[in-house]
Specification:
Elements: E1 13-16, H1 17-22, H2 27-34, E2 41-45, H3 50-65, H4 69-73, E3 85-88, E4 92-93, E5 96-97, E6 101-106, H5 118-123, H6 125-128, H7 141-170, H8 178-185, E7 190-196, H9 201-208, H10 212-215, E8 220-223, E9 229-239, E10 256-260, E11 266-268, E12 277-281, H11 283-288, E13 298-301, E14 308-317, E15 324-325, H12 339-343, H13 352-355, E16 366-367, H14 368-384, H15 387-411, H16 416-429
Parallel strand pairs: 1-2
Antiparallel strand pairs: 2-12, 3-6, 4-5, 6-7, 7-14, 8-13, 9-12, 9-14, 10-11, 10-13, 15-16
Bound molecules: 2-oxoglutaric acid and fe (ii) ion.
Length: 455
């Protein structure tokens, strides 16, 4: 197999929950984990209720994923782009539809965070829709999901406190407590109960003949999380021939979570024990901290053994859609991602500058909604729309948006709905025309007084 050598064991930074609660200064440890030279991941030990809550929830992810397609279909929600309830094969990772896993998404803190406000739901369904629960087919899911999710968030706020202290040391103009403020007030935290389906022997054989980029991402492709801080419950493995009792460890020690460092090293990361909570930085914190905290690309390697499944739980503590994505004033935004680190990104992971602002105009301020959901929405329309909406999506992404976005982000970043209206008007009024190419001649009357042509 064309797999690169993997370090036998990667030491990860472990913070004690008691130290976090006491408010002890752990900034050195946080820098070691989340700074430029860190792995981008750390573990927290000693959270009393975590092990029991994890053991209660994760088997339910496997149970839901094994219900019939008809039943699972009852809990799908296309109009939030499958951001609530069941989602399988709807996302693209590294350009391919993702069939290797199924996810159950919901808000782990609020069942209806905006009291079903129709305006908010219409505009921001992927963030704000009320939770969807399989009350009839797996009633115990709701309680188990909400209690593990809230435990992980409470610990996350303490980790965020330490991150804030570290960033403030490097950036005096950083808003004190910004990360904790962002995630604890956003009301749009999203949690994802993931079930990675077992591979057949043929799939295992086929995966063994693929190159390195694929070998490490058979269950989940390389990506950065978009939010601020992600909490992860260590994965639980099942032998599908004897699924009643979870395995105490993976039958394939190479299967599981991998990260790639800024220096290009590929590292297998695991919690020292299943009762530790893992934390990772997302792209929003990399932007907000001007690069003091670094998001780390990660992927999940499938078991190289047929009939083994994995279930895990990720809590994405992310900003509200209108949180402005900007670096602190005393940090150069372009340095938020060093060029050496950009070169070390695995294939398929877009550099920060490509998504924060646009290719023509990188590092412009935008809001989190644009950073996090625009790619999901585009993928949705490309795969699920009618012919007419697919055509419209194509027109918007290839012709209209590349023209519109740089101007919009520069001048009018705070009203996302006006961007949508402008794009639809341009698409229909100037159907088929090349945008940005007019006027071809200078106006005859008074050139000085005429508004500048769009470019
Ligand atoms: O399953 C895991 O351990 C990681 C999941 C993950 O990276 C994600 O859902 O974004
Ligand atoms: Fe992730």
């Amino acid at each position: 197999m064309a797999a690169a050598a993997v370090p036998a064991k990667t030491q990860i930074v472990v913070l004690k929950y008691a130290d976090l609660v006491a408010g002890n200064n752990l900034t050195a440890e946080v820098e070691q984990a989340f700074g430029y030279n860190g792995l981008g991941i750390l573990a927290v030990s000693g959270v009393a209720e975590f092990a029991e809550q994890r053991a209660r929830l994760l088997p339910l992810g496997r149970r839901f994923a094994n219900l019939s397609d008809e039943v699972k279909g009852l809990y799908e929600h296309p109009s939030s782009f499958y951001s609530f309830g069941w989602s399988h094969g709807k996302e693209k990772l590294q350009g391919r539809p993702d069939l290797a896993k199924g996810s159950f998404y919901n808000n782990p803190l609020y069942n209806d965070p905006f009291e079903s406000d129709p305006d908010i739901l219409r505009e921001y369904a992927s963030f704000a829709h009320p939770n969807i629960w399989p009350t009839e087919h797996l009633p115990e899911l709701e309680g188990a999901f909400m209690s593990l999710g809230s435990t992980m968030c409470e610990v996350g706020y303490l980790v965020a406190d330490q991150c804030d202290k570290l960033v403030k040391m490097h950036s005096p103009l950083y808003e004190a407590g910004k990360l904790k403020r962002t995630i604890s007030t956003s009301r749009v935290t999203k949690a994802r109960l993931l079930h990675y389906f077992p591979k057949t022997q043929e799939e295992v054989n086929a995966a063994n003949s693929l190159g390195e980029e694929h070998a490490f991402s058979g269950w989940c492709g390389w990506h950065n999380d978009h939010g601020s801080l992600t909490a992860l419950a260590p994965g639980m493995f099942h032998d599908e021939a004897h699924p009643d009792v979870p395995l105490t460890s993976s039958p394939d020690p190479d299967a599981g979570l991998y990260v790639r460092s800024r220096q290009g090293e590929l590292c297998k990361v695991s919690a020292p024990a299943a009762d530790h909570i893992l934390f990772q930085i997302g792209e929003s914190s990399q932007i907000h901290s001007g690069g003091v905290l670094q998001a780390t690309p990660h992927a999940v390697r499938a078991a190289g053994k047929a009939g083994v499944s994995r279930t895990s739980f990720a809590v994405f503590m992310e900003p509200r859609w209108n949180e402005i994505m900007a670096a602190p004033q005393d940090r150069d935004p372009e340095k938020a991602q060093a060029s050496a680190a950009e070169k070390a990104l695995p294939r398929g992971v877009p550099p920060l500058g490509e998504r924060w602002g646009t290719a023509d105009c990188p590092f412009t301020m935008c809001d989190f909604g644009a950073l996090g959901t625009e790619p999901a929405a585009a993928a949705f329309w490309h795969t699920n729309g009618s012919d007419a909406s697919r055509q419209l999506a194509n027109d918007l992404t290839t012709r209209v948006l590349p023209f519109l976005l740089p101007r919009y982000l520069k001048n009018n970043c705070q009203a996302p709905e006006s961007l949508l209206h402008m794009a639809l008007v341009l698409s229909q009024m100037w159907e088929g025309e090349q945008l940005g190419s007019f006027p071809t001649k200078p106006p005859v009357a008074s050139p000085a007084a005429s508004p500048s042509a769009p470019r």
